[in-house]
Amino acid sequence: MTKTGTLYLVGAGPGDPDLLTLRAARLVSRADVLVHDGLVSQEILDLAPPSARLVSVAKSRARHTLPQDQINALLVREALAGRDVVRLKGGDPFVFGRGGEEAEDARAAGLRVEVVPGISAANGAAAAAQIALTHRDAASIVSFVAGQCKGLSDQDWSGLAGVGRTLVIYMGVKTSAKIAEKLMADGLAPDMPIAVIENATRPEMRVLRGPLAALEDIVTRQNVKSPALIVIGEVTAREDLVLARTALEAAA
Ligand code: SAH
Asked: CDD domains from the entry (predicted)?
């Protein structure tokens, strides 16, 4: 009887290869098959051995190279054939990565599944931009939501953003106008500070700040592209507050 392979669902972190876990790096370096998203950086893929078969299942909002059920089927087929399959996903596999579905299908096929956490974009971006997602003086709640078009207006975000709260929006660049509208309709002040963090932890990272009312303007004028996160809350302006206070103190 042939041995059955294992499916490793591995988080690749937000981009900087140094943010890979040791477990992830080890698994990539001995993978038989490596199935990866578009978000996984080349430096990380370069850790795979020359013998590994690399399969890209890159997706974009407009273009789905491989539908999710076919990705699941590919993972199951390869692992059932006895190969150790590393499914490398941007950030953490269980945060907006459809890792849950891949794990379910693999378990249903009788495969062994191991999940390796990764640094999610919210954590990577917050660290790189020095925005504390929680702060004793500014926020004691943090929420992660998905901002893509589908079902956006049906999602109930009430209470997730506001004073004392931080809201991190994944996949919200294209819908930024609707997002700002939705949050203000829920009662959020137009001058609530926000930050847009594009390409977090990568050399080309940009951090753009402003009030909620200017969100769409910032995204359009600065031509913000995916991958980017939108962070809503007072924590995004802490740095400004500290600088303003220091300037006031210096002037006094
Ligand atoms: N599983 C991933 C999220 C996948 S959804 C994670 O845990 O991070 C894809 C979305 O993640 C992108 O649209 C973007 O909003 C966000 N994202 C991923 N990498 C990012 C990066 N380096 N900088 C900013 N946002 C990023």
From this structure: SUMT
Instruction: Indicate the DSSP class of residue 59.
Output: B
Domain residue spans in the chain? Answer: 6-119, 122-240
The pLDDT assigned to 209 comes to 97
Write out residues with Cβ below 6 Å of ligand 1.
Answer: 14-15, 39, 89-92, 95-97, 120-121, 125, 170-171, 197, 199-202, 226-229
CA distance 218 to 187: 21
33 with 23: CB under 8 angstroms? no
Would residue 59 show up in a list of annotated catalytic residues for this protein?
yes
pTM of the model: 0.92
Which of 3, 16, 18, 59 is the catalytic position? Answer: 59
Candidates 3.40.50.360, 3.40.630.30, 1.10.8.1310, 3.40.1010.10; CATH matching 6-119: 3.40.1010.10
Q: What is the CATH number of domain 122-240?
A: 3.30.950.10
Strands (E), the chain: 6-11, 33-36, 53-56, 85-89, 112-116, 139-146, 164-170, 193-198, 206-211, 228-232
Residue 242 is predicted with a pLDDT of: 56
What secondary structure does DSSP assign to 151-169, as a single string?
A: TGGG---TTTSBTEEEEEE
- pLDDT score at 84: 94
